[in-house]
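Q: What residues go here?
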């Protein structure tokens, strides 16, 4: 048992996802029931945002979480990331009507430049950074490239929500419990081009296409449902997914910090190392395994022509995004 509290920095802490996420971290859901934590909450220097953050801190106090050993609420990046072991970068400016993807990348890119630099200056030497704020792969790339001295393998972007969505869709279709679905890798960008690989996913240990024979459903409806699920939630709820996104943040950190079950894998975007002929240095989602300390991209997952085509399209989108922010990427 490690009784030294882990320092967990969270940006956008007064936002929707923050409101679902912080309570789960403080309750022990992310690092286990024995691990104390200190929350370091970062918001923009805006009166309304800081006031909302104060309210969240009051509610955290009112939960009397035994594992929560301290709360810092700040708009100062160096104070917020000071000594952080984990940096969960949730805060980002949402896309507004009339805004081009390039504009959004430019605005959010600047946020992640400064945050990457501050993480390098102020966080703990073992800091691991998970980017949730969109476009999360490219934001993670910007943070990574601006965080001099922090190893590239300590940067991640979140595709776990897509994995969880895909697992539920497959379980429903096969009329099985969701826990029966394993080895579901989401490849590429967290965007509408992502590829949830159903060929290599398993239901009760059997390849999904052997269990779900409706190939057209798998190739079309399934993929589109997963890709468009975020938009469907906005349409139904009137605001974007928050509790399920926070749950996916908890799942991602847990799966990176606990050993992966034998033979299984999970989805997270990491710095590509040339595996599967995907260009080195892109932040791309892969099938990943962890031994609890270190992660690795699972090698030798078979890819057919259909899968290769889908992966190429999503990787091309990552390259396009990178080209749009090239001025924010120091060598
Ligand atoms: P909200 O708009 O509710 O909250 C965002 C918060 O971030 C606000 O309180 C805002 O003041 C703060 N913020 C903005 N810029 C900041 C900065 N520079 N430093 C610190 N705080 C800053 O959004 P929410 O619903 O919480 O979503 C947050 C982000 O998650 C969005 O970019 C969203 O697109 C992204 N998502 C990513 C998902 C994924 O799977 N990777 C899924 C869910 C979500 O869509």
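A:
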């Amino acid at each position: 048992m490690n009784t030294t509290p882990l320092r967990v920095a969270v940006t956008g802490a007064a936002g929707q996802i923050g409101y679902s996420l912080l309570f789960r971290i403080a309750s022990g859901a992310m690092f286990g029931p024995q691990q104390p934590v200190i929350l370091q909450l970062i918001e923009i220097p805006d009166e309304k945002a800081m006031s909302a953050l104060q309210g969240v801190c009051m509610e955290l106090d009112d939960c009397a979480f035994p594992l929560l050993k301290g709360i810092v609420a700040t708009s100062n990046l160096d104070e917020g990331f000071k000594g952080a072991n984990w940096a969960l970068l949730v805060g980002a400016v949402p896309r507004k009507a009339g805004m081009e993807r390039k504009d959004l990348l430019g605005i959010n890119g600047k946020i992640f430049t400064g945050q990457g630099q501050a993480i390098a200056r102020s966080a703990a030497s073992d800091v691991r950074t998970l980017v949730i704020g969109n476009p999360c792969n490219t934001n993670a790339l910007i943070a990574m490239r601006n965080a001099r001295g922090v190893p590239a393998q300590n940067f991640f972007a979140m595709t776990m929500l897509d994995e969880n969505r895909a697992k539920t869709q497959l379980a429903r279709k096969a009329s099985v419990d969701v826990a029966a679905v394993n080895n579901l890798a989401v490849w590429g960008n967290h965007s509408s081009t992502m590829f949830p690989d159903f060929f290599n996913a398993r239901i009760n240990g059997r390849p999904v296409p052997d269990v779900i024979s409706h190939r057209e459903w798998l190739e079309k409806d399934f993929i589109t449902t997963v890709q468009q699920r975020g938009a469907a939630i906005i349409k139904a709820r009137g605001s974007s997914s928050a509790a399920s996104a926070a749950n996916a943040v908890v799942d991602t950190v847990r799966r990176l910090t606990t050993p992966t079950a034998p033979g299984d894998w999970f989805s997270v975007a990491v710095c590509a190392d040339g595996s599967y002929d995907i260009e080195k240095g892109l932040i791309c989602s892969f099938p990943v395994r962890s031994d609890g300390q270190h992660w690795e991209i699972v090698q030798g997952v078979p890819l057919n022509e259909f899968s290769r085509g889908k992966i190429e399209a999503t990787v091309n989108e990552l390259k396009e995004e990178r080209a749009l922010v090239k001025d924010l990427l120091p060598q």
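A: Context that may help when evaluating the design: The radius of gyration is 19 Å. The chain has a mean pLDDT of 96.
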